[in-house]
Amino acid sequence: MIATGTISINGREYRLPPRPVAVICIDGCANEYLDQGIARGLMPNMARLTSEGFRGMARGALPSFTNVNNAAIVTGAPPRVHGLPGNFFLDPETGEEVMMNSSKYLRAETILAAASKAGRKVAFITAKNKLLELLSAGMEGIAFSSEKAREATMERNGIADVEKLVGPTPEIYSGDASVYVLKAGVSLVENQLADFLYLSLTDFMQHTYAPEASESLEFYRDIDTEIGRLMNLGVIVGGTADHGMNGKTLPDGSPNVIYLETRLCEKFGDGFKVILPITDPYVKHHGALGSFGAVHVPAALEGRISEVMDFIWSLPGVTEVLEKSRAVDLLELPADRTGDIVVMSGRNVVLGRTPAHHDLSQLDAPLRSHGGRYEEMVPIFTSLPLNGDYQSRVQGDVRNFDVFDLTLNGVQL
């Protein structure tokens, strides 16, 4: 028996429908990836969903990074509510640069936790293990990563012998790591182990291959197959992305980088610290280079912030320079975890700290990355059509963290 009713969380109410639900975050999925797959006939289930359900575009949270947007999706709220300004930040209490992979940094309850308390069989499956503890906070049920599937235990993850259920643990730097998440979701539904799922993929393929590449097309074909399997099981499927993806290279194929900390220190002297919130354990994806940076200005220059901002504006490839209070307001960021100046770069440009901070030898392909405005817009979809009220709502400013609202409240049952 599937638990129904409503849950109230972070100022929003969500209906718990009498059918299994799966919300998917296709990490790094710019809309072009879906368009290319559908146009070539490789994504028939997405094509069916587009015509029979709902598919549109949504605005993600900024910075357009994984932790920020996954936290937004599972809380239904922007960063100023859930508390994460990036994958990485400068802790104002300690002055240390910190990875935000722990649930102690999360300031809002998740929809997953609330659904589990309401009696749903909740499962959270992520490709990247870094999200596991962060987003499973407070929930009861099944939570594991494809990266560490073989290590899952009943005590720690709510499930054991994952490999017997799904297959061998995949390599994290592969498309298989994402497809495995979807296959695991299908298996949990088939075995009646879960009826409320959040499935979060990894963006290794999007970092490595453009939408028209044969490798991308095969990857999205496999994603489409698993989405179809979920739909055929009667699951209400919703989906979106945490961010898009763009090439960030010069004409010769080398990374197009502004080493912002280097430039600032050359101009004004030492003491600047540039935090790149894309930083995470998976640097092979992107070399810790993204299109968003937070500048912490040395105390001696606090009275010259306008001058510092003007200099940053003068750097070719910079597209936005925001003083802290403006960034907090415009980007919905937590004020105590935001730098003195926020900087974003252009579609084909990334920000770095200094050349010594980035080991680009690990990059296997021309740099593709994200973080700024040009990766903010992402696809959003539901397998069922929207009711009349929600058909009107999606004509406005839809956010990727509305996906649970659309999937639970907006669809016609």
Description:
With 413 residues, this protein is an alpha/beta fold. The protein folds into 2 domains: 5-244 and 376-410, Alkaline Phosphatase, subunit A; 257-369, Domain 2, Phosphonoacetate Hydrolase (Gyrase A, domain 2, 2-Layer Sandwich). 32% of the residues lie in helices and 20% in strands. The protein is built from 16 helices and 19 strands. The chain has helices spanning 31-39, 44-52, 66-75, 79-82, 111-117, 132-135, 154-157, 162-166, 176-190, 204-208, 214-232, 260-268, 305-313, 324-331, 388-393, 403-410; strands at residues 5-9, 12-16, 21-25, 54-59, 88-90, 97-99, 122-126, 141-145, 196-200, 236-240, 246-247, 257-259, 273-275, 292-296, 318-323, 341-345, 350-352, 368-369, 377-382. Strands 4-19-10-3-9-7-8 form a 7-stranded mixed sheet, sandwiched between helices. Helix 6 links the parallel strand 7 (122-126) and strand 8 (141-145). The longest helix is centred in the middle third of the chain and has 19 residues, at 214-232. It is globular. The chain starts with a strand and ends with a helix.
